[in-house]
Design goal:
The protein has about 100 residues and is an all-beta fold. It has one domain (about 25-95). About 0% of the residues lie in helices and about 50% in strands. A hairpin with a 4-residue loop joins strand 5 and strand 6. It is globular, with a radius of gyration of 13 Å.
Amino acid sequence: MFQPERVNEIYVEVLRDNGSTGCCVQEELVAPDSYAGGTVNVLLINGTQVSYPLAIVEVESPFYTGRVTAAVMKDLVAELVTGNIRGVRSFCSREATK
């Protein structure tokens, strides 16, 4: 389910991915000084493993609010993919976020 949210003060669409153990962010949303200096290996849905740089981004959404370390990717299905990270909410309704 796609939900509106903000990443680094920019409104984007997020996908809540219950099968993921981390977060991924679209490359153009990451400022050069936000890169964390490390990489993470991500197992993609097609079974391949790819290394991506990490960045720290500020997230405000129905699923999660706060800073998160995310894999930076060029092509995502949504501008932010939120996986099963500490503090994430599994479900939200429009009523609960007002």
